[in-house]
From TrEMBL:
<keyword id="KW-0326">Glycosidase</keyword>
<keyword id="KW-0511">Multifunctional enzyme</keyword>
<dbReference type="Pfam" id="PF06827">
    <property type="entry name" value="zf-FPG_IleRS"/>
</dbReference>
<dbReference type="InterPro" id="IPR010663">
    <property type="entry name" value="Znf_FPG/IleRS"/>
</dbReference>
<keyword id="KW-0234">DNA repair</keyword>
<dbReference type="InterPro" id="IPR010979">
    <property type="entry name" value="Ribosomal_uS13-like_H2TH"/>
</dbReference>
<keyword id="KW-0862">Zinc</keyword>
<dbReference type="GO" id="GO:0008270">
    <property type="term" value="F:zinc ion binding"/>
</dbReference>
<dbReference type="GO" id="GO:0003906">
    <property type="term" value="F:DNA-(apurinic or apyrimidinic site) endonuclease activity"/>
</dbReference>
<keyword id="KW-0863">Zinc-finger</keyword>
<dbReference type="Pfam" id="PF01149">
    <property type="entry name" value="Fapy_DNA_glyco"/>
</dbReference>
<feature type="domain" description="FPG-type">
    <location>
        <begin position="243"/>
        <end position="277"/>
    </location>
</feature>
<dbReference type="InterPro" id="IPR000214">
    <property type="entry name" value="Znf_DNA_glyclase/AP_lyase"/>
</dbReference>
<feature type="domain" description="Formamidopyrimidine-DNA glycosylase catalytic">
    <location>
        <begin position="2"/>
        <end position="93"/>
    </location>
</feature>
<dbReference type="GO" id="GO:0034039">
    <property type="term" value="F:8-oxo-7,8-dihydroguanine DNA N-glycosylase activity"/>
</dbReference>
<keyword id="KW-0479">Metal-binding</keyword>
<dbReference type="GO" id="GO:0016829">
    <property type="term" value="F:lyase activity"/>
</dbReference>
């Protein structure tokens, strides 16, 4: 799933490609992706792109006062096309294409942007709104962890308000902190040397400072690494720089211990027991049930 660093890089890349260009058509090949009807998609035809921004994990293409807001969900992605076909895409269960944004012709070609979604679980969402806050997911976002107003004091209030909830869940809840997902919450907690199950309100002042630095440093470094990369390069860039997420069974790059995993119904977390839990493996209830 694209998280804050990748979505920020996508916004930067698209800003350079789209600024000042006209959107001539938006074709929806997967009708479940379109979540709004007022204004209609036709309202954006001919609109000039003014900016591309990020709100948490949401991409916001602003054009002539309208906002085409996109959430890539777990399996969505963007593919730039130097020249899109003249024939509109047809709805198909076999094609990953969900939406095609067609731009004005230049130098005899018609560039565009294909928005795809792999797999059978379709969660990708597209909104056309007058204000990004008209999108419920944007309106309910917590603070962005890389802005100046995300201070140690604000993080302390968030953790206190969360009570005994586990750090992993608090970090990745979009209504609490915007933009952190499964992968970077694993990476932040590994950098902070904290258990994903640690109660949020149990941190000392020193631990709070360590966690705050891990959030800012981990995300900030990922944004800097992603800067300037095209969309086609971002997935590989992210994967190559992860310390524990997606690396179960491999050695921890810090201590050499084996990276462990806890599985859930539809996701999993990875961690290093030596670095994060005092050497004690976390209970994996799903695997325990399978072994009985």
């Amino acid at each position: 799933m694209p998280e804050l660093p990748e979505v920020e890089a996508l916004a930067q890349d698209l800003r350079g490609r789209l600024a000042g260009r006209a959107i001539t058509k938006v074709h929806v090949a997967a009708f479940s992706a379109l979540k709004t009807y007022d204004p209609p998609l036709a309202a954006i035809e001919g609109a000039l792109v003014d900016d591309v921004r990020r709100h948490g994990k949401f991409l916001d293409i602003e054009a002539s006062g309208l906002h085409l807001v996109l959430h890539l969900a777990r399996a969505g992605w963007l593919r730039w096309k130097d020249d899109v076909p003249a024939i509109p895409p047809r709805p198909s269960n076999k094609s990953p294409l969900a939406v095609r944004i067609v731009l004005d012709e230049a130098d005899g070609v018609t560039p565009g942007l294909d928005i795809t979604e792999a797999g059978t679980k379709k969660s990708l969402a597209l909104y056309l709104v007058r204000d990004p806050l008209d999108v419920p997911g944007v309106a309910s976002l917590g603070p962005d962890p890389l802005t100046d107003d995300f201070t140690p004091e604000r993080l302390a209030r968030i953790l206190t308000d969360a009570g005994r909830k586990q750090l992993k869940g608090v970090l990745r809840h979009q209504g609490t902190i915007a933009g952190i997902g499964n992968a970077y919450s694993d990476e932040i907690l590994h950098a902070a040397r904290m258990s994903p199950y640690k109660p949020s309100d149990s941190l000392s002042d020193d631990e709070l400072a360590i966690l705050y630095a891990a959030v800012r440093d981990t995300l900030g470094a990922a944004v800097e690494r992603s800067r300037g990369h095209a969309a086609s390069e971002l997935k590989a860039e992210k994967k190559s720089n992860l310390a524990v997420h997606g690396r179960a069974g491999q050695p921890c790059p810090v201590c050499g211990d084996t990276v462990r995993e806890v599985s859930f119904a539809d996701s999993s977390l990875q961690y290093c027991a030596t670095c994060q839990t005092g050497g004690k493996p976390l209970a994996d209830r799903r695997m325990s049930k399978l072994l009985k």
